[in-house]
Amino acid sequence: MSPTFGIAFGGGGARGLAHIHVIEALDELGIRPVAIAGSSIGAIMGAGMAAGMTGKDIHDYARSILGRRAEVASRMWRARPGTIAEAMQNGIRVSQFNVERILKAFLPEAIPETFAELKIPLKVTATDYFGHKLAVFEEGDLHSALAASAAIPAVFRPVMRDGRLLIDGGIYNPVPFDLIENDADIIIGVDVVGAPEEADRKQPTSVDLMFGATQLMMQSIIANKLKQCRPDILVRPAVSKFRVLDFLKIDTLMNETADIKDELKRQVERVLEARNGAAVKGRRGKKAG
């Protein structure tokens, strides 16, 4: 009997476009996960896969929108506040977009309204701001869970759900492989957090410093988690040179991270060979006994 696979897609904003290569590689290997977990952009990519979209489907859809500035602008216009009262709610917050409206304008139709309609079980993380803890969603309304998971502070407004104020799931659990460690035989983790890089030796802006500090915090969380438990496979696409909102650089990002497909395939092959070798030894041991 073939081993089952689970996959955890990490958060990282636009850097998470590299998740598409991972999904394509799994498609090419004929691997269909039995469990998926995701944080932030990873939750959105995971929802696409859980809904039955192939890596090519997601790739083509993302490129058809993000590859055209006019299309992005059109969808952003659709996501604008519906009324002046909504725009002025709790004061003017020009830097905080409504992430639920943004997702409604950008998500593919293939992603359903509820978790129950997904073809593969999905766990979505968010951070319960006042509860000071991780929130995990796996049932009920899917879109509000994805919005909460992707609500990057200072960019998007928090999301209210079940009486809780929710923000970016990557803050508490950047690569949530631990949420599915008991749901499949082989667990894959995909880390797209990246780390600050010296870009042309320029002094980083306050915004760069804020996002860079968040990257460092998330990397610290991941490092501590890996000391406690590790996924069977962990891949880290080379995404550090890209910023959290570099979605319009999709072509460059996809070209420069394409080698992650072959790396993942090699790692899957090694894990399967190791499992097969262990199984053969186990059978020999039983015969000898």
CATH superfamily: Cytosolic phospholipase A2 catalytic domain
Counting structural domains, the number is: 1
Continuous helix count = 10
> What is the mean pLDDT?
90
The low-pLDDT segments are 83-95
Shape: globular
Q: Which percent bin holds the helix content?
A: 40-55%
How is the biggest beta sheet arranged?
A: 8 strands, mixed
Q: In CATH, what is the class?
A: Alpha Beta
Radius of gyration, CA atoms, in whole angstroms: 20 Å
Class by helix and strand content? alpha/beta
Order of helices and strands: EHEHHHHHEEHEEEHEHH
Number of strands: 8
Provide the β-strand percentage band: 5-15%
Distance between the termini: 23 Å
**CATH fold title:** Cytosolic phospholipase A2 catalytic domain
InterPro entries: Acyl_Trfase/lysoPLipase, NTE, PNPLA_dom
Motif (DGA/G): 168-170
Motif (GXSXG): 38-42
Keywords: Hydrolase, Lipid degradation, Lipid metabolism
